[in-house]
Amino acid sequence: MKITIPYKPRPLQAEVHKNLQRFNVLVCHRRFGKTVLVINEIIKKCLQNKLPRPRYYYIAPTYSMAKRIAWDYLKHYTSVLPNMEFHETELRADLPNGGRIQLLGCERIDTLRGLYMDGCCLDEVSQMPPKLWTEIIRPALSDRVITDKDGNWKDNAFMIAIGTPAGHNAFFDLYNHGLHDENWYAQTFKASETNIVAEQELAEAKKLMPPEIYESEYECSFESGAIGSIYALSLNKADKEKRVTKVPYDSTIKVDTFWDLGMKDKTAIWFAQQKGSAIHLIDYYENSGESLEHYASVLDDKDYIYDTHYLPHDAKVREIGTGKSRMEIAQSLGLSTSIVPKMSIEDGINSVRMTLSRCWFDFEKTKEGLDALRQYKWAIDDKGVTKNRPQHDWTSHSADAFRYLCVGLQETKSWSTEIKYPRLGIV
User: Fold this and answer.
1) What's the chain's average pLDDT?
2) pLDDT of amino acid 426
3) pLDDT of residue 414
4) Confidence of residue 425 (pLDDT cuts 50, 70, 90)
5) Average pLDDT over residues 214-220
6) Are the C-beta atoms of 228 and 377 separated by less than 8 Å?
7) pLDDT per residue over 246-283, tens digit each?
8) Which one is predicted more confidently, 143 or 190?
9) How are strands ordered across the β-sheet holding 23-28?
């Protein structure tokens, strides 16, 4: 029995389907139809897969976004297949050949570790943690790859990254890699070139929308910051003034660290030196699920000479299990600690904005933390209305630690003490 999926791709969508490689990056304007494209590509691949128990995934920044954007499309295009099973609570579709397509969010990316994947789509990559691709998705695509007799990729274990630009972030990095790797397919589709959106509609949008948002949403410009980014203007200024560069460690000045402590989630640490009025961010480290002993060991391995390790105010709270506070545990490990004064998030954000003009970032060692600062946004409700609080996601801990740095600097007269070496002379 022949069954036809009710999908009729537009010419450009058909071109994409024809040109897809194992790894793909599609930078698409609003209303291009990118979600419909990738959902149907996954359905086709799943139905054609001859391996046992095929597994395909559509991954969005959050679970709610995955459901809102793609779930209805997945059900619509697969509902014509016999013996389909839809699991609403898991956002999972079980196909008649034993294949499975599931929608996921990446709020907690560690929960995605260990999955095997025959293929996946990453939607709105600009809002995802950079580690998602390098540490989780790429390894997950290694077990099910089909190769030819020479060991070259033939089929399966593929990835499609889609989205609209939102500044220089993980999506930007993926796209640039794709442009320079002959085994990847990377393509940009601008609204002014595709003729999908009517010229009158584009003219109206251009007239009403801020220029940077229009350029990002319709003309696929990576030069505009992320929409709703709290620190975009300040960090763009840092880029223009070339303060994101190589910032070497000065061994004559002690290093201070600023922490956001996570229990089950992420701990983030910024490493800073103050030189006159300038603040040099020389390093950054984050991890999750590790003890304070782990972080103390990381600090020791870096061979910096430290002054003070600044912790958030809740580090003074004693834990039920140990009867000790995390500040006390840190001190028992030989760390000289201080507590950052408590300040409202709003006032802390203002402190960051006032301080960023004095900051220099090492472009290599602080990249992970800087990516988070660039993507730190105001929360938006389901109706698209901006709330008066930041979005809690993968960027939060890095941004919180940096906020503690700025508050600590504001409230402390002096830190990053100069090291007094003995003067050498001729007797």
Assistant:
1) 89
2) 39
3) 53
4) very low
5) 91
6) yes
7) 999 999 999 999 999 986 678 999 999 999 899 999 99
8) 190
9) 85-87, 92-94, 100-105, 55-60, 119-123, 158-163, 23-28, 184-189
How many whole angstroms separate alpha carbon 406 and alpha carbon 404? 5
In order of their start, the domains of the chain are 11-217 (3.40.50.300), 232-411 (3.30.420.280)
pLDDT for residue 249: 96
Nearest to 184 by CA among 221, 215, 153, 147: 153
Write down the pLDDT at residue 246: 96
Say yes or no to pLDDT of 27 above 60: yes
> Cα separation of 13 and 28, whole Å?
11
Q: What is the 3-state secondary structure (H, E, C) of the chain?
A: CCCCCCCCCCHHHHHHHHHCCCEEEEEECCCCCHHHHHHHHHHHHHHHCCCCCCEEEEEECCHHHHHHHHHHHHHHHHCCCCCCEEEHHHCEEECCCCCEEEEEECCCHHHHCCCCCCEEEEECHHHCCCHHHHHHHHHHCCCCCEECCCCCEEECCEEEEEECCCCCCHHHHHHHHHHCCCCEEEEEECHHHHCCCCHHHHHHHHHHCCHHHHHHHCCCCCCCCCCCECCHHHHHHHHHCCCEECCCCCCCECEEEEEECCCCCEEEEEEEEEECCEEEEEEEEEEECCCHHHHHHHHHHCCCCEEEEEECHHHHCECCCCCCEHHHHHHHCCCCEEECCCCCHHHHHHHHHHHHHHEEEECCCCHHHHHHHHHCEEEECCCCCEEEEECCCCCHHHHHHHHHHHHHHHHCCCCCCECCCCCCCCC
- Picking from 245, 297, 265, 290, the residue whose alpha carbon sits closest to that of residue 400 is 265
| pTM for the structure as a whole | 0.75
The average pLDDT across 140-165 equals: 90
